[in-house]
Design brief:
heterotrimer; A: Rossmann fold; C: 14 helices
């Protein structure tokens, strides 16, 4: 099955929450097989945009998933194509790690089906990827915040969907595990999967392939992360309180007051 | 997935309908009473007294915990009350007749266990007469005997009412049955007795048999005499505005001991004694009035 | 591999054993004690006591407890709130109002026409419970927002409860019977009642188990559940109806017995680690066992008199939970 080069496309997307307009006419294209990060200040509507793209919110306008209208897709098919990792969602302390990650296989399981060998493989792979395999029998309530986050990540990875939408996936993760996550994303995109993340750590976001810069419910810039135009856009939406500079082969964001002359 | 959901929804709907039907069609055995009952269980004090008045006290094998008259039933097993009759104990006694209030719990259950159950809850004189007739029939007591019992009751109540002096008549009475407050209306057996004794009831027929009264209504009505059980009197005194009631200020409140209360509130053969208690109250409290207003 | 599966089976087996023992004891205790059991073979009445009174009552107590336990587990999963109980959606007050209305209409004629007896208080209570939940659903305008559903349930509960109190106060004969209903009693359960409850219990158990996976997904958050393709709206409606059905059927037979629905899921979770699907089944088992024990104690402690069964469920269930709470303090207390 040939996938188009555009994973998600939105056209004139408007979203209102509680009567207030949050997204104003978003036109956006996200390329397949690449990692796109959405950046912007608080209240820019990043999470809302991500949710709308995942089909979890009502919206006006159009969203296309691999050139198919999102609204017309059956829930099961959509759940197999999109993997979602939300921010600050409730967790039940009672489930154990294995069961939580196995929930990620729900889109592929029939009603009342026993987990298949493929499901088990997917769960194992996901747990290994987030280095959570050793404590797969522990209860969620017994884990630290960072460990919990890794389990939730594993759950999202287990879906093995072509498109992964992640909202603040690095919450509570310490630097070594943030690096693990980076490697995981690179590995996923190498396999042809598309990753879209909302990250408020601009430094991490700059590691992505493409970036979408938002402010006040609108898109200010879309483009490759390496482009200087993207950097200028990012600096602008943050009121030039940060400066993006090269350190070695990577880009970093430094607070303006510490900027070297 | 939605198809399976639909089938389950239909199943659920089917279960709903069927269980609805089940609940409505609980089997109810109508047991005919073909011969005079020899083992009687009574779960209502007034019915217990009625049975005894018909001379069948010795046939009582079980009574409720509130039945306490006559003395001869002191040894009869107690089987719970109106709300919580002990089904097993009742069945174990092998009664061939169970008398209980219609509003008591367990009527359905006892019937479904094959017991002969008669439900009655007399509210006025006419009901008491009917109750006497029904119980007599079930006991095999000849109608003329039950008729005689009824005539006796009536005649004695008439005697009591004749003995009420003129000055004690036409007084306005408030009879409180329970502290909510519930009062005895004109159309209740208590109200009818009062009427026959020549008293007026501040609670008229239109208010119901045992209406719940607003304390304010009683204050406005200013009854001449208040009749109440002595355990409720302190409650009365605490009601706002009631200490100003003429009847309370002048001490024209008749309080009755628990034993006397039992007599007063049971619609059975002891209505005669109830009439005596009430007439005594009417005379005593109005003598006071007569003395005050010569 | 989920190692806890063997724990589940062991646990369930142990409970079933206890239930069987409970039934055995239940049949032997009562106002006439063991005598009835011994005499059952040659005494008609003793046989009747065992077979028509004690056995259906014991099994019925188990069934009611199972229905309440199941409803409690579903309510807690639906609202994602460990303090939820099956009466949250107004079903208790609806049943009370149904009973009050039935008593009020019935009480007009004290010479008991058979029709009223046939319709029975059970039908009225059942209908009342269901109608209250439907009203809650209408008021909350669907099941999208659990907060709204909870609020609507509370409102319906309070309003219907007030209406029932009004009726009871206007008619003193109704008041007495209502108090009995509110107190809750297993004393009046016969075979037809048992059949109705089993007939309701089985499909409810199946459906609750089916939806276990959906409730597990829901425990990860609404967005996540939706993204996994869970039919959230349909699922919620079905669960609400299941709770209504199970609660209505239970309350119709015994009146309001508190605490079983709330405590059973907690008791299960304190012993084994379970997913929602199995939690529903095990809660049913635990609730049934709890009420079974309470019923046995109710009629044997001060035989031939009886204690109210609701008091005993609170003492048994609450006592055990309290003990667990203090014992597990180092594990972070009750979950």
């Amino acid at each position: 099955m040939t996938k188009s080069s555009t994973a998600i496309k939105s056209s004139n997307l408007h979203v209102s929450l509680n009567g207030q307009k949050v997204l104003h006419g978003i036109d956006l294209q996200i390329r397949a097989g690449r990692w796109t990060s959405i950046v912007g200040p608080n209240g820019a509507g990043k999470s809302t945009l991500l949710k709308a793209l995942a089909g979890l919110l009502e919206y006006q306008g159009e969203v296309f998933l691999f050139d198919q209208p999102l609204a017309h897709l059956k829930a099961k098919y959509r759940s197999q194509q999109i993997s979602w990792l939300g921010q600050n969602e409730a967790t039940s302390d009672d489930l154990n790690v294995w069961d939580v990650v196995m929930l990620g296989r729900l889109p592929f399981q029939d009603w009342m089906a026993v987990p298949s060998a493929q499901d088990k493989q997917a769960v194992e792979a996901a747990l290994q990827a987030t280095k959570a395999w050793d404590w797969r029998q522990r209860r969620l309530g017994q884990l630290s915040a960072g460990e919990k986050q890794r389990v939730l990540l594993a759950r999202a990875i287990a879906v093995q969907a072509s498109l992964m939408l992640m909202d603040e996936p690095l919450t509570n993760l310490d630097p070594p595990h943030q690096v693990d996550w980076l490697e995981q994303v690179r590995y996923l995109t190498a396999q042809g999967k598309t990753v879209v993340s909302v990250l408020h750590e601009v430094g991490m976001a700059l590691h992505a392939d493409d970036t979408v810069v938002m402010q006040a419910g609108r898109i200010v810039h879309q483009g490759a992360c390496a482009d200087l135009a993207s950097h200028r856009a990012i600096e602008t939406v943050f009121d030039k309180r940060i400066a993006i500079q090269a350190v070695g082969s990577e880009w970093v964001a430094i607070p303006s007051s510490l900027r070297s002359i | 997935m939605h198809k399976t959901l639909k089938t389950y929804a239909f199943q659920l709907g089917g279960v709903l309908c069927l269980s609805f039907a089940f609940c409505f069609l609980s089997t109810s055995y109508a047991v005919e009473i073909t011969k005079p009952a020899q083992r009687i269980v009574s779960l209502l004090p007034s019915l217990t007294e009625t049975v005894c008045a018909l001379g069948a006290c010795n046939r009582l094998v079980g009574v409720d915990r509130y039945s306490n008259w006559p003395e001869s039933i002191a040894q009869v097993p107690r089987l719970g009350g109106g709300i919580d009759p002990n089904i097993e104990s009742i069945v174990a006694l092998k009664p061939d007749l169970v008398l209980m209030a219609g509003s008591a719990r367990g009527v359905e259950r006892l019937k479904s266990l094959g017991l002969a159950v008669i439900t009655m809850e007399p509210k006025n004189y006419a009901d008491v007469q009917i109750a006497l007739g029904v119980v007599a029939k079930a006991l095999g007591v000849p109608a003329k005997d039950s008729d005689r019992v009824w005539r006796d009751i009536n005649a004695q109540v008439e005697e009591v009412s004749k003995s009420v002096p003129q000055y004690a008549k036409a007084q306005r009475v408030y009879f409180e049955v329970s502290p909510v407050p519930f009062g005895a209306g004109e159309s209740s057996f208590i109200g009818e007795t009062l009427q026959r004794l020549g008293a007026k009831n501040i609670l008229t027929t239109s208010m119901g048999i045992f209406p719940q009264v607003s304390p304010e209504f009683v204050v406005r009505a200013q009854p001449d005499i208040i009749m109440v059980g002595d355990s409720n009197v302190s409650d009365m005194q605490a009601r706002p505005g009631w200490t100003n009631l003429r009847a309370m200020r002048t001490g024209r409140v008749c309080t009755f001991t628990p034993k006397e209360s039992d007599v007063l509130v049971r619609p059975g053969p002891r209505m005669v004694e109830a009439a005596r208690l009430m007439s005594q109250c009417l005379v005593e409290k109005s003598v006071a009035q007569a003395k005050q207003n010569p | 591999m989920n190692l806890n599966k063997s724990n589940h089976w062991l646990f369930a087996l142990k409970m079933l054993l206890l239930v069987a023992i409970g039934i055995g004891i239940g049949v032997s205790v009562g106002s006439s004690g063991l005598e009835s059991l011994q005499n059952a073979w040659h005494d008609d009445v003793a046989w009747k006591i065992i077979w028509e009174i004690r056995l259906p009552r014991t099994l019925g107590a188990f069934a009611v407890g199972a229905l309440l336990g199941l409803a409690g587990a579903l309510a807690q999963g639906l609202f994602r709130n460990p303090l939820a109980d099956p009466y949250l959606l107004g079903s208790a007050s609806g049943a009370t109002l149904g009973v009050a209305l039935a008593l009020a209409f019935y009480g007009g004629n004290q010479f008991a026409p058979d029709a009223y007896i046939r319709v029975g208080l059970t039908g009225a209570a059942f209908a009342g419970a269901l109608l209250a939940v439907v009203l809650t659903l209408l008021l909350a305008r669907g099941v999208q927002h659990t907060m709204r559903l909870l609020l609507a349930g509370v409102i319906v509960g309070v309003v219907m409860g007030a209406m029932a109190s009004l009726i009871a106060l206007m008619r003193p004969d109704v008041l007495q019977n209502m108090q009995g209903f509110l107190l809750g009693s297993t004393a009046f359960i016969g075979w037809s009642a048992c059949l109705v409850m089993v007939y309701v219990l089985l499909p409810c158990l199946c459906l609750a188990w089916f939806f276990g996976f959906a409730m597990d997904a829901l425990s990860l958050g609404e967005s996540t559940a939706l993204s996994l393709g869970v039919p959230l709206r349909a699922m919620r409606i079905v669960i609400v109806l299941l709770v209504a059905l199970a609660t209505g059927a239970a309350v119709a037979q015994t009146g309001l017995i508190a605490f079983v629905g709330l405590a059973a899921p907690h008791l299960v979770r304190s012993i084994v680690l379970v997913k929602n699907g199995n939690l529903a089944l095990l809660s049913a088992l635990m609730g049934g066992l709890l009420l079974l024990l309470a019923d046995i104690l109710a009629r044997s402690l001060i035989a031939p008199q009886e204690l109210p069964v609701g008091v005993l469920t609170a003492v048994l269930g609450g006592g055990y939970l309290l003990w667990l709470m203090y014992r597990n303090q180092d594990q972070g207390g009750l979950r």
